[in-house]
Amino acid sequence: MTPTASPTSSPSVYEKILLFDIDGTLLLSGRAGYRALTQTFEELFGVVRGFDDVPVSGKTDEIILTDALARAGVEADQSDRRRFHTRYCELFADEIHFPGPRKGLMPGVADLLAALDERPEIRCGLVTGNFARPAQIKLEHFDLRRYFHFGAYGDDAPVRDDLVPIAVERARRWGAEVVAPADVVVIGDTPLDVQCARVAGARPVAVATGSFDQPALEATGAAVVADFSDTAAMVRLLLD
Ligand SMILES: [Mg+2]
Question: CA angle 193-179-58, nearest 5°?
Answer without folding.
Answer: 10
